[in-house]
Design brief:
Organism: Egibacter rhizosphaerae
Family: Belongs to the UvrC family.
Number of helices: 20
GO molecular function: DNA binding; excinuclease ABC activity
Keywords: Cytoplasm, DNA damage, DNA excision, DNA repair, Excision nuclease, SOS response
Strand content: 15-25%
Number of strands: 20
CATH architecture of the largest domain: 2-Layer Sandwich
Pfam family, one: UvrC_RNaseH
CATH class of the largest domain: Alpha Beta
Oligomer: single chain
Distance between the termini: 65 Å
Shape: globular
Helix content: 40-55%
CATH topology of the largest domain: Nucleotidyltransferase, domain 5
Radius of gyration: 30 Å
Number of domains: 5
Largest sheet: 8 strands, mixed
């Protein structure tokens, strides 16, 4: 019988506490590959140290990748739940399931923290004081709803740039003239009056609709009785718009209740969750998640983990009641966890009869449909990624599939403002949070080889330095399976020399030349030419192009700052703060050049005398300066 690889580092049972807590499995590089929670750490960890035949396939795979285990004792199960969630978010372990949005959903957003709030459509909510309603399934649905609501609540929807321009020229935009905005930008409504409209809109979106409908009806009848038929007709249109907006929200209960309803569809490998958000009996939003079940969890454990993610994502919108298909594992601890987030009690209910059971059945059908669509897409994506990594291993003669690829590119303009980029692919997918950029420091002039040597040296020096640090302080501590260089033999040799000088072993190096998409390998005179239609070549091209894009973007930012600084540094009285204020107001050097003296004076900290100095300076620098301004265009990356 095969032995358990965990036995090589099995701790003495007496050293493992019986308290609740979390445990972390790490690989040979110290990277966390799995995080778990246990009511009794000793009991849970002991279950891993047995014969492989008694463990699930996914658990065996995790143990084969692990090289050590450690644990953190907690005072109770609720604290352990919080810690488990935070550790998973921090380390993103490969063998923990992660709930992934199946799309980027749009929200109807009210920027409530602004002095004059704006209604808008936004994806990916932020914790910036805004109020979010939804998510909606389709962007067009939310835009139609917002268009209808603007006829009842004519609040601001324009961007900050449009708002400031209208305020500057003291002329409202078209939305005011067609009755879709009260024009706070030019003072037709005070900020206080506008905020009252915003508060009414928020109340309507939260389900408090009867007062609005009643008020509109009363106003319509009052205008009609006074023979003001045009005014009555306008209010009638507003009433129709409000009712149409309500009709877009599905009524699911006969009582005005607030709750979230959750259901799922799953197989042995994956699952799809759907959640409907019900307020005052109407569905005001819905969202879907997909799950790759890389760890062995039953349905109740899966629901428990999902509720933790849902609660953390929507902590400021959690209702008092959540409907679930089965009672989650550790239900009492989960309820206490959610109650901490909400700041009040939370009830988990499994409906047994009536309209709520029908609603969960409807959500299950949505989950099944989402699961089917995900399977079709995932089959193609997963197959192509696996095939690409397998082909790459074979064509490049690697010992193992390159599960982590780092690609490096240099961006320079005749040796000036030289920068480099590092992009990362793991399992064939971009890991944008691990991208890095470098500003070349030790190379003068146009020497691409020396630049590449510097970048590789800096990256792997950090790897060596951080290998002994605590995990939380590591940024470069995980070596790639393959280092890919954008270039030819010269860049490849420079990278290889840098690795050799540092004593780095076990990292494969290759270079991808642009001319014929040839792959150069160490100790080979002839390049490798991958089949033109191969998934491996497509993968290399994709990561190379991503590295090039990332490097060029950074180079433009650095160059833009240098060019902008060179212009303003010659203007007396302009320092970093005033330069930033000008660029914040106008957006680019080109726009500053086009501004009048009066426009410049409107910027905070710019007097009329200084505005005249700036104007004269920017309009007397000659054709070369003009070309520089045109090159910058509207790039806001030049902000000081």
């Amino acid at each position: 019988m095969a032995s358990n690889p965990a036995l090589a580092f099995k701790p003495e049972p007496g050293t493992i506490p019986t308290d609740p807590g979390c445990y972390l499995w790490r690989d040979r590089h110290g990277r966390v590959v799995y995080v778990g929670k246990a009511k009794s750490l000793r009991s849970r960890l002991s279950s891993y140290f047995q014969g492989l035949s008694q463990l699930g396939q996914r658990t065996r795979a995790m143990l084969e990748a692990a090289a050590s285990v450690e644990w953190i004792v907690c005072s109770g199960e609720v604290e352990a739940l919080h810690l488990e969630y935070n550790l998973i978010k921090e380390h993103r372990p490969r063998y923990n399931i992660r709930y992934t949005d199946d799309k980027s959903y749009p929200y109807l957003t009210i920027t409530y923290a602004d002095e004059v709030p704006r209604a808008m459509v936004r994806r990916n909510p932020r914790k910036d004081g805004s109020r979010y309603f939804g998510p909606y399934a389709h962007a067009y649905a939310i835009r139609e709803t917002l268009d209808l609501l603007q006829r009842v609540f004519p609040v601001r929807t324009c961007s900050d740039g449009v708002y400031e321009r209208c305020a500057r020229i003291e002329r409202p935009c078209l939305l005011y003239h067609i009755g879709r905005c009260v024009a706070p930008c030019v003072g037709h409504a005070t900020p206080e009056e506008h905020r009252e409209l915003v508060d009414d809109l928020i109340a309507f979106l939260e389900g408090d609709t009867d007062p609005v409908l009643d008020e509109l009806t009363e106003r319509m009848h009052a205008e009609a009785e006074q023979l003001n038929f045009e005014a009555a007709a306008r209010i009638r249109d507003q009433l129709d718009a409000a009712r149409k907006a309500l009709a877009k929200q599905q009524m699911v209960t006969s009582r005005p209740e607030d709750f979230d309803a959750i259901n799922l569809h799953e197989d042995e490998l994956e699952a799809a969750f759907q959640a409907f958000f019900v307020r005052r009996g109407r569905v005001v939003g819905r969202k879907g998640w997909t799950v790759d079940k890389v760890e062995d969890l039953d349905t109740s454990q899966l629901v428990r983990r999902f509720l933790l993610d849902l609660g953390m994502e929507r902590e400021d919108q959690l209702p008092r009641e959540l409907l679930v298909p089965v009672e989650p594992d550790d239900a009492d601890a989960v309820k206490a966890f959610l109650a901490d987030l909400r700041g009040g009690p939370v009830h988990l209910r499994v409906p047994q009869r009536g309209e709520k059971v029908q609603l969960l059945d409807q959500i299950a059908e949505n989950a099944h449909e989402a699961f089917t669509q995900h399977k079709l897409k995932r089959a193609q994506d997963f197959t192509s990624r696996s095939q690409a990594l397998h082909d790459l291993q074979e064509h490049l003669g690697l010992d193992e599939a390159p599960l982590r690829i780092e690609c490096y590119d240099i961006s320079t303009l005749q040796g000036a403002n030289s920068v480099a980029s590092m992009v990362v692919l793991e399992d064939g997918l971009p890991r944008s949070n691990e991208y890095r950029r470098f500003k070349i420091q030790g190379v003068a002039g146009q020497d691409d080889f020396a630049m590449m040597r510097e970048v590789i040296t800096r990256r792997f020096k950090r790897f060596i330095e951080e290998a002994s640090r605590p995990t939380k302080q590591r940024k470069f501590a995980y070596p790639p399976n393959l280092v890919l260089i954008d270039g030819g033999k010269g860049q490849l040799s420079a990278a290889r020399e840098a690795l050799a000088d540092l004593g780095i072993e076990g990292v494969a190096v290759a270079a991808l030349a642009k001319r014929l998409e040839e792959v150069y390998l160490p100790d080979r005179n002839d390049p490798v030419r991958l089949p033109r239609a191969s998934e491996a070549l497509y993968l290399l091209q994709r990561v190379r192009d991503e590295a090039h894009r990332f490097a060029v973007r950074y180079h433009r930012t650095v160059r833009g700052k240098e060019m902008t600084r060179s212009v303003f540094d010659e203007v007396p009285g302009i320092g970093p703060a005033r330069r930033k204020a000008l660029l914040d107001r106008f957006g680019s050097l080109k726009a500053v050049r086009q501004a009048s003296v009066e426009d410049l004076t409107a910027v905070e900290g710019i007097s009329e005398t200084l505005a005249r100095t700036i104007y004269d300076h920017l309009h007397g620098r000659g054709a070369a300066e003009g070309a520089e301004a045109e090159h910058l265009g509207d790039e806001r990356s030049a902000r000081g």
